[in-house]
Structure formats: structure tokens, C-alpha cells
Amino acid sequence: MSLKELDTGVQNTWCPGCGNFGIINAMKQAIIQLGVPRERIVAVSGIGCHGKITDYLRVNGLHGIHGRVLPAATGVKLANHGLTVIGHAGDGDAFNIGLGHFAHAARRNLPVAYIIHDNMIYGLTTGQTSPTSGQGFKTKTTPRGAFEVPINPLTQALTAGASFVARGFAGEPKHLVELFKQAMTHKGFAIVDVLQPCVTFNRVNTYEFYRQRVYKLEDGGHDAGSFEAAYRKAQEWGDRIPIGVFFREERPTYVEAFPALGDGPLAVRELNPDIGRLIDEFR
Amino acid sequence: MRKMTCVGLGDDTVSILIGGEAGQGITRSGSLLGTALMRGGLSVFGTNEYPSLIRGGHNYYLLRASGREVYSQDSHVELVVALNKETALIHQGELVPGGGMIIDEESQLTEGELSRDDVKIYTVPLTAMVKRLGGPEIMRNTVALGSVLAIVGFDSTILKDVIAGTFRGRQELIETNRKAVDLGYDYCKEHYEGFGCRLVDGEGTPSRIMPTGDEALALGAVQSGCRFYAAYPMTPASPILDYMAAHDAETGMVVIQTESEIAAINMVVGAGYAGLRAMTATSGGGFSLMVEGLGLAGMTETPVVINVGQRPGPSTGLATNTAQGDPLFAIHASQGEFPRIVVAPGDVEECFYLTMEAFNLAERFQVPVIMLTDKYLAESHRSVEPFDAGRVPIDRGKLTLVERWEGEEYGRYRITKDCVSPRLLPGTLNVVVQGNSNEHDELGYSTSSPGPVVAMMDKRLGKGRFMENHVASLRPVRVIGGEDAEVSLFGWGSTKGPAREALMLLSESGVKARFVQIVYLEPFPAEDVRIELARGSANILFENNATAQLGELIRLHTGYRFDHVGLRYDGRPFNPSDIRDGVMEVLRR
Question: Of B90, B170, B297, B300, which sits most exposed with the smallest number of CB within 10 A?
Fold first, then answer.
């Protein structure tokens, strides 16, 4: 498979330099390197700049509604668990309107890779605050600076029970490809929070900002098998910002919760229902 | 052969009311008794009323049996089984003269508290006998059921068999319950004569079933090949979730209790997109949360089935009562314009067969289908012929299940003559399948160009005409009663049962009446309704809501305005006698 085969040819409307380009390119590379046929992949996206990825990435796509990426992805995955399902969500999508679903997908260990396009700003609605915006961050809706403590995607994920927790940076494409590959092959719920500069509306969290701060966890001998170590690292934010795999564990996935899925994917089967015995219960 | 017999005090039916506190297993006892009567050859209808709490508070189950088909409760009761004092006091007024009441010796009713001197009181030491048996307090119900059978003359072996079936595999429980039946039965045989009312089982009676509307709907979904059910608990739809969860291994269905109704509808859309027949059920409050997801199904042309079990609103309203307050909401829910189907079953059989139709329609037209039921229909039992699983064959419309697509370039939203696009599933080799909540082109990619936007709107809405034609073949308007009727009752959904009973009452009063049931509310069968309105009879509308919403719908589509409207919106279903009285009042004018 070539990069071109993963391109829909639809005109791209992301701003030049948008961090989304780093994400879609890394995603294409990951798909190619894993060798998964594009027909076997479903990308589910929400609403916001990130959501357009289903227009540009030539895999099956379900561009749903705001905040509901994970429930839709749950339906797709359980209907046909032979498919590789990748959820794409923005920080608003994932941590404002869709925060409730996030915790439940994590505790279910839904085998879906969940890629957060985290630019810490509302881009498509032209510059309002986001749940991951830093305190004091000034936007159209926070003229005195954001009051709220930002949501930390990683500690949220760890607390909720995500079995793969990672952070990437859109300006570190090779590193990001590796994270995506691991997330897509992880058996369970895998979140990758991607630091994604918004070149139009976020003048704080720029490429330069991140380049000066990010370092790779794997360079420092971090133990991704330790929840405590992961939680400690997940709280690190300031002059130094860790990226990489924070936490990973193996445990049964949500697919194993359903006797119906024991014999393979349901969607491709012919329907041959028989309620004969069920009727007898009412006699 | 012994013949089945039913002698009531007012008519050819016998009504038994079992009442007590919530948590005393009232509904369970009612359905056990109903099943026993059904096995003895009687037709039964059973409905419950309970408050929204788990312990305490008044609860009752009203069972009506007859040798003829019985379609609903009525307001009179032959026998009250009072498991507590409150039941005796609240329900004594509903007893017909000459009726009976079973009370627990320990119910602490004092002299003079019961105002009725024209009913027979059967004092039975229910609590004492259970104590002697060493059973839990709830077993008083079983003793009481044994007492009922002795008083009306029904074979207690049948009840014991029903109990054995219910508690299959739990031998000790079965034995204690059998003994409890015998204790109640023998006590009453020894101490009491019967009263005027008789229920006698017959031999060799045909085998029937006694599901609730919810259970029939669940069975219909299973037989439709529904393999994905996601829902959030909400009265009166929770029993469907319970049923599906209890049978998931056997039915091969993925059943999920979701974190919210929003999650449920979006999961169902995801599963539908990926090719499963998928369903959710809720009540009005949950449906309100689902509305954006309903629009997603409409925009992505994803087949889904949504059951809305109505209860009185707005907001939490009367959480455990019944209403028909949501038809216009169901028809109009969501921003924007897209085709949908709204169907309203009127009885247990229709809950089964229309669910099967609903799944077919959803896939045939690639639209969301909403099934409107209500608490009264959802939770009431009725004895019916076992469902004919082959009556509605599965029709998956333009879905092609292939491993590899070899045809021309695939577009999920291809414009076709009948406005329905060929459907392939994600995973099919050689294609990618797009579902898009944004306006999109034929391939499914977002567009805002005026040309494709209009083409896609026209394609979706163009299905309407084909849906109308198809629905016209499904008997969207059903009439009970002859064309020579002088009165036509119009209604929809669960008013069907009481209306059918009312037709019999009216006939006894010398009034020829018929019931016109609107089954499909969207697309609206305007032509059929117009014909029924113009039969020359007096037309009266009955609805379980305060604003006559079917009346509004009929006015919208036909211009007809009802002069006579009977509305009930206290959270309770119509009684047949209410409907009869309403009709008689109109005729007297």
C-alpha cells in the first residue's frame, strides 16, 4: 500500500502548518507499516478540525456527532470485531462533551485506538477555550484567562482504567508513527493524546513551545508496566513534557464480555433466528 | 371432558385484583395466576400499577379472565386479594355487589373499617401459615393464590405446575411453594363456600402464551435477527433490556447497559453502519437525549430501530404510569428534515409482528424506525396464540454481503431511482464505506456545494413517496367492527384493547360501533384515514394525552377536525366503560 492509496483526493482545508497534518501522515505511515488493508480499518471521528480526517484518509469512515466518537466506535467494533477501529477526537470532543464516554470505554477495555487531536483550543469555532487549555489561557471566551484547572488526559485515562496510555507530539512524526502502531495493535483501549499545535488560534502551545520541552520517556528508562510510575509521569507538565508510552497492561477486552462474539464477527453472518424455545417460556 | 367455565358477577369475565406493598412480589403473583388460568383454557389480561419505588407504597396487579378473548381490564372487580390493610381500604369500592375479598388474618382491619356489607370477606391466616411453613414473608402471595383457586373452583395442580416451571431446578423452593398453594387451597375449601363467581379449568385446551408488550417486542427483535441491543434502564423499557441480557448467549446478541441514552443511540448507529440489525429502547426522557443521534441515523441513512415506551411527562412526570404524549415529538424530533417511520403497536401481537416489520423497513429504506408503545402496553400481559415466526420474512433491502466487491466504484450514497443506495459493509474488500453526519456527496465525503447538497436532500426525502406506498401495503389503518356502524372510535396504540372491549359494551347497549386504529403515524396513511372518516358515522377520538395529538395529525393531513374527543391524562389507561360512557354521551346529544 502506498501513501497515495490512503489519500481520498478530497481538497484539504486544514490551515497550512496545522498539527493535523502530522497526525494524518503518521496515521498513514502506521497503516502502511502494519500492513492492514485499508478496507479493514474504520476511522470514527467527531466534530471539529480533527473530524475532517475521515474526508482525507482513505479508509472506512464514520464521521459522527460531537462528543460521541467512542459510543459509535463501540457499535462498530462489536458489530465486526475483525475490523481495526480507530477513534479520532479533538480535545473538546473527548474531554468536554464526550468525557463521560471516555471513562466507560476505558473501564470496558474497548479494543479501539483513541487518538486525541489535542490543540488546547476550539479551532473550528474560531478560538474558544478548551478543557485542556492551561490556566490563565486567554481566548475569546476567557478574556481574563481560563479559570479552570485543565483536564489532564493521561491521568484521566489512567484513573478510568485505560490499558494503554500514551502521548505523542505532532512535530515528532516518526515517534508518533510508533505510538500509533502500538495503539492500533494493543489488545484493549489505547489512548494516544497528541500534542497538536493550532497555528491559527493557539499562540502559546506552538511547535516551538513543545520542541523546547518534550522528551521521550523511553530515553529515561520509564517502566510502562508500573501504574504508579505512569501516574507520576503523567503529572509532569512544565519545562519538561514527557511523550511516549506511559502505561500498558494486558487484560481481557470488551469483546470477551459477550458470548455472542465467541464465534467471530457478527456483521458478516447470515441471519437465521429461531425463537421456538424462547416462546415456550411464555406458555 | 371437563369444559372450561367462567362466570362473572357482571358479565362473562372475572377480575381479580391482588394488592399489597411494593416489594411484595405482586406482579409476579399476578402473572403466575394468569398463566395458570391460561393453561386451564381461559383468556387473560393482566395489568399492574405501581409507584416509582422499591419498597412500600401501594402496588396492585389486576387480572381479568374470560372464556372469550379478553382485551383489557375494566373498572369492576369480582375478587380482591388484600395482602395488606391498605389494599382492602383502597379497593373495596371497586368490588361488584356480591364480590369477595381475601384478607390476611393479621391485617389488623378493625370492625367498621370496611364499608361494604354486600361483599363476602374471606379471612385467611396467610402470615400464620407461612410462618408454620418456615417460608419467607413473600410466600403469603402463594398461599393467597391457593385460596383464590379454592374459592373460584379452579384446579390447583395447574398453578403448582406453573410454579414448578418458573423455579425450574430449585427443588426446595418448588416444594415449599407447592405446600403454600395447598395450605391456602385447603384452608378455604374447609372453611368457606365459594361465591357467585366461578373459574373452572377445561381439559385439552390449546397451548397459548402470555407475554407482556415489552416481552413480545423483545421476541420480535430476536426473530428479526437483531444482534445488537444497547439501552439505558428507564421505565417502562427496562424489562426489554433485562430480557435481552438474560438471553444474550442463547440469542447470540450483544447486549449492553450503556452509560446513557446518548451512548445507546450512538452505539446502535455504529452497529447499524457496520451491518448489524440494532435496536435501543427507552422512554420519552431518554429519547430526548437520543434526538441528536436520531438525526445522525437520518443523515447517515443508517437503519436503526428505537422503541419509545411512553409515560406521562414532561420531565420525570409520572415515572411508572402510562400516556400517549409523544407521537408528535417522535415524528418531529431532531433538527433538519429527513425521512423516518413511526409505528405504534396496539397490542401484544402487534408488538411482535410490527417489530419484525420495523427492522425490515429500517433496512429496506435505510432510515430510523421509531416504535411507540407506552407503559400500559409494555407491562401488561395478555394471553395470545404463540407468535408465527415465519409471518414476516426478513428483508434486508439493498444490503449485499460479499467478501470482495467487484462492481463499479462504490459510493455509499449513490443516487438511485428509488432513492435508496446499494449498501455494502465496512470490511468489504475493494471498497471503503463512508457514513457522514456532514452533508456529503455520493461517495460520502463532506460537501457544501449547492448542487450536491440539494441532490442529497432530494435523495433522502425522495424516499418518502416510496415509504408511503410500501406502508400502504402493511395495513397502516386497521378497523375492527362493521361498516354499518353508527359510531367510529378513532385511536392508536394501546387504546386498542379498551376500545375493543368498549365495542362489546356498546353492542350490549344496542350501539353498533367500530374502532379505527392508526398503526403507522409516519408516513401518515392520509388516504386510508380520510376514507374511514367519511363513512358517515359519528367520529369520536380517544387518546391517552391532554392535547389530542392524533387529532392534530389527522387535521394536518386531512383537514378534518374532531367534534368529539375523549382524553385521559391522569397516567391511567382508559377503562372500556369510560369509552362506552363517552360514546353514549355523544349519542345522547
Answer: B170
Which chain B residues contact residue A55 at CB under 8 A?
445-446
Same domain, B19 and B128: yes
B59 and B171 in a common domain: yes
Give me the residue from B263, B271, B275 closest to A101, CB to CB: B263
DSSP annotation of B122 reads: E
Predicted structure pTM score: 0.97
Query: How confident is residue B287, by pLDDT bands cut at 50, 70 and 90?
Result: very high
Residues B436, B568 share a domain? no
Q: Is B392 within a domain?
A: no
The residue range of the domain holding B522 is 477-588
Q: Across the interface, which of B249, B269, B427 has its CB nearest the CB of A268?
A: B427
**pLDDT value of position B550:** 98
B317 and B405 together in one domain: no
- Nearest-Cα distance to chain A for B427, in Å, is 5
For domain A4-280, the CATH architecture is 3-Layer(aba) Sandwich (3.40)
CB-neighbour burial class of residue B168 (10 A; exposed 0-12, middle 13-18, buried 19+): exposed
Quick check: B444 contacting A, CB < 8 Å? Answer: yes
In chain B, how many domains are there? Answer: 4
Test B209 with A38 for CB contact under 8 angstroms. Answer: no
Q: What is the mean pLDDT of chain A?
A: 97
Written as nine digits, the cell of B76 is 369492576
Residue B175 CA to chain centroid, in angstroms? 34
Q: Tell me if B215 sits within 8 A of A282, measured CB to CB.
A: yes
Residue B391, in any domain of the structure: no
Nearest to B271 among A55, A79, A277 (CB): A79
Report pLDDT digits (tens) over A135-193.
999 999 999 999 999 999 999 999 999 999 999 999 999 999 999 999 999 999 999 99
**Chain B hits for A73, Cβ within 8 Å:** 270
Domain membership of residue B245 (yes or no) is yes
Report residue B16: phi and psi, to 5°: -120, 125
B506: pLDDT strictly greater than 90: yes
- Closest residue in chain A to residue B212, using alpha carbons only: A282
Quick one: which of B346, B282, B342, B340 has its CA closest to B310?
Answer: B282
Q: What are the extents of the domains in chain A?
A: 4-280
Q: Where are the strands (E) in B32-150, listed by range?
A: 43-49, 58-66, 77-82, 95-104, 120-124
Q: Find the CB nearest B254 among A64, A82, A258.
A: A258
For B24, residues 6+ apart whose C-beta sits below 8 A from its C-beta are B59, B83, B84, B138, B140, B141
CATH number at residue B553: 3.40.50.920
Looking from the CA of B305 toward its CB, the CA atoms found within 13 Å total 33
Q: Do B547 and B408 lie in a common domain? A: no
Residue in A42, A100, A259 nearest the CB of B260: A100
Q: Test B274 with A40 for CB contact under 8 angstroms.
A: no
| Residue B380 exposure: Cα atoms within 13 Å on the Cβ side | 32
Same domain? For B410 and B449 the reply is yes
- Looking at the fold, whether B321 and B462 belong to one and the same domain comes out as no
A270 and B427: CB-CB below 8 Å?
A: no
**Could you tell me the CATH number of the domain that includes residue B237?**
3.40.50.970
**Closest chain A residue to B208, measured at CA:** A283
Q: How far apart are CA B575 and CA B570, in angstroms?
A: 12
Question: Are B286 and B354 in a shared domain?
Answer: yes
Q: Is B546 on the interface with A (CB under 8 A)?
A: no
Last residue of a domain, one of B141, B165, B200: B200
- Give the 3-state secondary structure of residue B478: strand
**Which residues make Cβ contacts (< 8 Å) with residue B57, sequence separation at least 6?**
B21, B22, B50, B51
Q: Is B388 among the domain residues?
A: no
Q: How many CB pairs under 8 A join A and B?
A: 204
